[in-house]
Amino acid sequence: MIKPQTSTLSYTRRVASVYRQTVVQTRVNQSEGPVDILAVCPQVSLISCEPASGRINYSGKMIFTILYSDDEGKLCRMQKGAEFSHYCDGDDFAPAQTAVCSLSCEKVSFRREGSAIVLSAVVGAHIEVFAPAERSFIGACEGAYLKLKPQKFASFVTFEGQCEVEDSFEADGVEDVLVPSASALVTEALCGTGEIEVSGEINLSLLAVRRGVPVAFERVIPFRCAIVCDDAFSGALPRARAEVRDMTVNAVVDDEHGRCRIEFSCTLAACGYFAATDEQPAACDAFSPDFSLKLTRAEESDSLLAERKLCSERITSPAVCKAKLDFTCRFLAVALPSLEYEYSPESGAAEGVVNAVLLYEQGGDIKSAGVSLPFSVRVGAGEGVSVSASVCGISLRQPAEGALEGEALVKVAAEYSRTNCAVYLTAMEEGAALPPEEAALSIIVPAPGDGLWDAAKKLNCPPEAVSAANPDLKYPLTGGERVLIYRRKEQ
Fold it and tell me: pTM of the prediction?
């Protein structure tokens, strides 16, 4: 009779990794101010993300900053806010779970509908869902031989936190800031004892007015956010994302000295998760010399972060413009850069386009046009590569009439994953009794790649007995050997 001994561990498993898109819209009446819209800049932030039965509900806040010219041709701005909620369905979702969500604004557009202007943005939600669970595995058994193997069991830990980021810098001659835009790029995340440190850069892009003319400013602001996490330990590699919330940008003008200082502040929210691994000896196979066995196996496969790398490249390429430009156009500012990109496993590069707004003067009027620059930043091929990127330092020039060339600095934070697999027995049932071995000598021809355990299982005898009877064999076997075992008859 077999008597398996089972151990049980509590852990947190990853239930799902999902990506969803939703369209956020709001309307601006003509009477509210805009006459000729030059640019629209969106800023999105998360409000909540809650698992429910069969569904993940998430909500956020979108702030549209609109740059327009009034009846007199003066540059003005206004802001329009909108809250939104969306969901994604799944049979495995439940209220007891935890969801880690980060939002990104992927496209923005506007159109006229009668006397109103409709502002639209495509918001992408990256959601990781985790749930408490228990795993049971067999570590010993009476009446059966076990193939014990050290298994690395993974359990995930989630975290989230906030910090305040402030910065100020001189901007001579600036009278006002019209449109601010900021995005955060995580370049490093480290676990310490009871704390997780997330660091990176905030790329701040400002469209301002200097002596009545629009100008663009870009600034890279480093940040470091310490998040308390009781389960954090030194050496773990966390995945982390960060987003800018509640941003405030002020232009402080000193008329007496003719100076201007830009003051920036925001709340930076960071969230993420990491895996804690625990190595335990667990049975992955078994057999009994006396009974047939019905084995129940479980398999876990988790993607764990193995390495993080920052790649940056200054790109120079022809640019595509949505307006017809010639030498009568005087470029004023290139502002509000953003990215559309994805990782290509075939090329091992982050590929996409840099989008920006070009403000130019033509015929005494200030006009705007959307421009885009293709880019490709090689980060290397690998298993489970994921990327996030930012752009700064964008500029445009017209080398020939009607032609446009752009330059920008693109930074890509790449995460490289490895797969952690654990295969183990969770249950063992005794089947029919096996007939006794009558032969005093048993010989098998192994399959190529068989190990000691495979040979012992085929011979239905302990591995140590096979090893003692065949001391010259080297494992794994090639398939040309003969493996034998003598069975001494009881008198």
Answer: 0.88
